Amino acid sequence: MYHVLSESENGNVGIKIQRKLTQDDYRLLISYIDRLKQEVGPIRLLWDMTECEGLNSQGLWEELTKQLHQFHEIPQVAVVGERHWMDCGTKVFHPLLKTSVKYFTPDQLDTAWRWVKGEDI
Predict the structure, then answer these.
(1) Most buried in the list 49, 56, 61, 82, measured by CB within 10 Å?
(2) DSSP 8-state symbol, 9
(3) Helices 23-40 and 58-66, axial angle in degrees (round to 10)
(4) Residues 6+ away with beta carbon under 8 Å from 121
(5) What are the chain's domains?
(6) CA nearest 2: which of 55, 42, 38?
(7) Residue 2 burial (CB count, 10 A)
(8) How far is the C-alpha of 38 from the C-alpha of 88, rounded, in Å?
(9) Residues 12-39 pLDDT 10s
């Protein structure tokens, strides 16, 4: 399950993933992001993964990896979480994307928002 964070504005979008993200959740999320890109142009994303328990299926992981090309159109992605694999994941995917990806711990959420918005941190 996911929801859009209330701090989202002007093409800076925060998405909070809670519990497990299902394949249906993922499809709705991609649809939302596509629609938003058409309405406001380039967007910057903040993924709050502090309550994420993982992906709900192997099929979802495969679909996620197929959709990586979509992130070429997103200049900045902040990933907020407390799991070591998230930090490693941002480092692994960063060279594959034209997107600037940065990991933040939960206590750095405000800093992550400032980074996504292009403010000095």
Answers:
(1) 49
(2) B
(3) 20
(4) 111, 114, 115
(5) 2-116 (3.30.750.24)
(6) 55
(7) 19
(8) 31
(9) 999 998 887 777 887 888 888 888 888 9
The DSSP code for 34 is: H
Question: Is pLDDT at 9 greater than 50 in this prediction?
Answer: yes
What is the reported pTM?
0.76
Provide the token pair at 110: 């405000």
Select the more confidently predicted residue: 85 or 25. Answer: 25
Position 16, amino acid: K
Count the neighbouring beta carbons within 10 Å of the beta carbon of residue 118.
11
Residue with tokens 């990806």: 101
- Cα–Cα dist 29/120, whole Å: 29
- Rounded Cα distance between 119 and 95, Å, is 23
Element (H, E) at 102: strand 100-104
Give the residue carrying structure tokens 């750095």: 108
CA distance 3 to 35: 15
